[in-house]
Structures are given as structure tokens and as C-alpha cells.
Design a protein that fits this description.
Radius of gyration: 41 Å
Strand content: 35-45%
Strand order of the largest sheet: 1-4-5-7-8-9-10-11
Order of helices and strands: HEEEEEEHEEEEE
Helix content: 10-25%
Structural class: mainly beta
Mean pLDDT: 83
Number of helices: 2
Distance between the termini: 125 Å
Largest sheet: 8 strands, antiparallel, barrel
Low-confidence stretches: 1-48
Length: 219
């Protein structure tokens, strides 16, 4: 009689191994590590405005001239402001970074005629009691089409503020610098002329300002 025990044992071992292999789960692949975020690009340096090599200048009290002229009844009239202060920042190597600030005491106007002085200082024109100062502030300079340097700023006169570019000539001197030039503006743009003085038939609208100011280096 044939002995089937060895055959049965081998078959059982084979089936058991197959079942074990089927029941054992396949190993999972290792999870990929997240990529390290890229470092942010360094920020661009902020603009520093005025050049570190810029020189600062101020006007000595009682120096310089600030004059104005206008047409009245066809004749040219002249006047000046005796009290004003000027501060300039300027770098000859980088001129567009400059700045300029001027403060004028309007009651210091002088035309060599008391009646005319009183008229200009009155409420219909400069109204010096209500508006004792006029200011010009420019925080940058530019070059005009003709290659001239200009202050790019705002003039506040009689409580009205408007953009105004002022041509500048800056000349080095033994003690610092000299600032000069001229500009023409329209008085009615700033309300200088109320009531009957709004008419330009008697007094012209255009007023020419001329300035020449010696400045001392402050630091």
C-alpha cells in the first residue's frame, strides 16, 4: 500500500506557505520628504533721498534780495521783500537730490511809496494781516529742456498752494554758495486781487520775481 503521508505533508506545507505570502501585506514605499522652501530673495535697499555728500546752506539774516515787478496802467512798478529766510541742500555731483525752502514775511514788502505799500498789504491784495507769510518748498530738483536746473516744489501765497518750478543758478563762493534766478507767476492764481483788483485792465496779472541770495554753508 502506497504511503501517502509524505505527499500529504508536502502539499500542506506548500499551501500554508502560499497563504502566508498572500496574507502578508506588501511593504509601503517610504513617504517622500517635502522639498525645503526656497529662501526669499534679499529685499532691494530703500531709496535714501538726499545724497550723503550733499551740503547744507542757510541765508544770513538781512542778506540777499527778493524783488517783484508788475505793470500798472502801462507802467512797470517795482517792489521788494526785506525779510525772508532761505535753506538749501545741494550736491553738485547729484543735483536732482537737492531741496529748497523759502519763507517770506509778506508785511516786509516795500515799493518806496507808502500809499502803494498800504494798498498792496491790504485785504484785497496780499492781505498781510491774515497771511503774514508766503512759503516755497521744493523736495527735489530737475533739469529743464534747456539744461537749466529747476526746483520742483509748491508755492503757498495768500492761503493758496500751487505747483511751481523755479529756475535756479547755484554758484560756489568762498563762504558757501549764491542762489539766483527769476520766475514769472500769475497773481490771480493765488487770489492776489479781490474786488476791483480782479480786473487786469489796470494791474497786469503777471508778476516777475527775481532773487539773488548769498548762502553760508551750515554743515
Amino acid at each position: 500500500m502506497t504511503n501517502y503521508l509524505p505527499l500529504l505533508a508536502a502539499t500542506a506545507a506548500l499551501l500554508g506557505g502560499a497563504c502566508s505570502a498572500a496574507e502578508t501585506p506588501a511593504p509601503r514605499p517610504a513617504a517622500a520628504k517635502p522639498a525645503k522652501p526656497a529662501s526669499p530673495a534679499p529685499a532691494a535697499p530703500a531709496s535714501t533721498g538726499a545724497s550723503a555728500s550733499a551740503a547744507h546752506f542757510t541765508q544770513a539774516p538781512g542778506t540777499g534780495s527778493l524783488t517783484f515787478s508788475y505793470l500798472q496802467a502801462g507802467a512797470e512798478n517795482h517792489g521788494s521783500f526785506g525779510q525772508f529766510a532761505t535753506a538749501l541742500t545741494y550736491d553738485e555731483q547729484n543735483p536732482t537730490t537737492g531741496s529748497l525752502e523759502v519763507t517770506v514775511q509778506t508785511a516786509s514788502l516795500e515799493t518806496q511809496d507808502k500809499d502803494r505799500n498800504d494798498l498792496l498789504a491790504g485785504a484785497d491784495l496780499f492781505d498781510v494781516k491774515k497771511y503774514p507769510t508766503a512759503t516755497y518748498v521744493a523736495n527735489s530738483f530737475a533739469t529743464s529742456a534747456g539744461g537749466k536746473l529747476e526746483a520742483v516744489g509748491k508755492l503757498t501765497l495768500r492761503g493758496v498752494t500751487r505747483d511751481l518750478r523755479i529756475p535756479l543758478t547755484i554758484r560756489s563762493t568762498a563762504n558757501g554758495a549764491e542762489l539766483s534766478g527769476e520766475v514769472t507767476l500769475k497773481r490771480l492764481d493765488y487770489g492776489v486781487g479781490q474786488g476791483e483788483w480782479q480786473s487786469t485792465e489796470g494791474v497786469g496779472n503777471e508778476v516777475k520775481l527775481q532773487y539773488k541770495v548769498p548762502l553760508a554753508r551750515s554743515h
